[in-house]
Amino acid sequence: MKLVIIIGPQAVGKMTVGQELAKITDLKLFHNHMTIDLVGNFFDYGSAEGKRLVKLFRHELFDAISKSDLKGLIFTFVWAFDMKEDWDYIESISMMFQSRGGSVYFVELEADVKERLKRNTSENRLNHKPSKRDVDWSERDLLDSMTAYRLNSFQGELNGDHYVRIDNSIMSAAETAEMIKHRFDL
After folding, report:
1. Distance from C-alpha of 6 to C-alpha of 180, rounded to nearest angstrom
2. Which has the closest alpha carbon to 135: 147, 123, 152?
3. Helices in 69-119 by DSSP H: which ranges?
4. Dist. CA 69–CA 3, nearest whole Å
5. What is the pLDDT, as a whole number, of residue 135?
6. Residue 121 scores a pLDDT above 90
7. What is the Cα–Cα distance from 111 to 116, expressed in whole angstroms?
8. β strands within the chain, DSSP E
9. Bridging pattern class, strands 163-167 and 103-110
10. Rounded to two decimals, what is the model's pTM?
11. What letter does residue 131 receive in the DSSP assignment?
């Protein structure tokens, strides 16, 4: 079992790279908006009940998948590196898979703000993430989060054989996915 966690700020291309990686591997894609947008039909994601349900659904899926005979999973996540609860969350997911013999790989994507703002309105993003269809709100959220949180790691903060950082500002999602596949022998 392999768990590939693709991290990075909003609109950096996590889901799109994950889609391309799923096409060229035996891994299933679970992008973070699959639960956010599901719960968002009933409760605001920022509400206590919304957060509780997203966490619950994700935990149950991770638990079932980590016990299954699937080859692995690609999960996308906006990790606020300055928030201990995000560190703890990633650690808990990782331990769930590792405790059952799985391997965890981290892919950190980064792209300049101009490119991310462009990607924020891409057809693929808007088709797969209903909560991002209010483009004005989504753009404000993207820009505001840059000052509220640290969404890329410091150099050397994450490292090792199971980690790669990729500036995909000028790379296609398919090129990025190929790089990930070869880097981790997926």
Report:
1. 10
2. 123
3. 84-98, 113-119
4. 13
5. 87
6. no
7. 6
8. 2-7, 28-30, 72-77, 103-110, 163-167
9. parallel
10. 0.93
11. G
**CB of 57 within 8 A of CB of 12?**
no
The per-residue b/e assignment along 75-91, b for 16 or more CB within 10 angstroms, e otherwise, is bbbbbbbeeeebeebbe
pLDDT, residue 147, reads 93
Residue 123: what pLDDT?
Answer: 87
The CATH superfamily of 2-183 is: P-loop containing nucleotide triphosphate hydrolases (3.40.50.300)
CA-based torsion, 51, 123, 183, 100: positive or negative: positive
Q: What is the pLDDT of residues 34-70, one digit of tens each?
A: 899 899 889 987 899 999 999 999 999 999 999 999 9
Given a cut of 80, whether residue 6 has pLDDT beyond it is yes
Crossing angle of helices 33-40 and 48-67, in 10° steps, is 140
What one-letter code names the amino acid at 107? V
Q: Is the CB of residue 69 less than 8 Å from the CB of residue 53?
A: no
- Using left for φ > 0, alpha for ψ between -120 and 50, and beta otherwise, residue 169 falls in alpha
Q: Report d(CA 166, CA 179) in Å as an integer.
A: 9
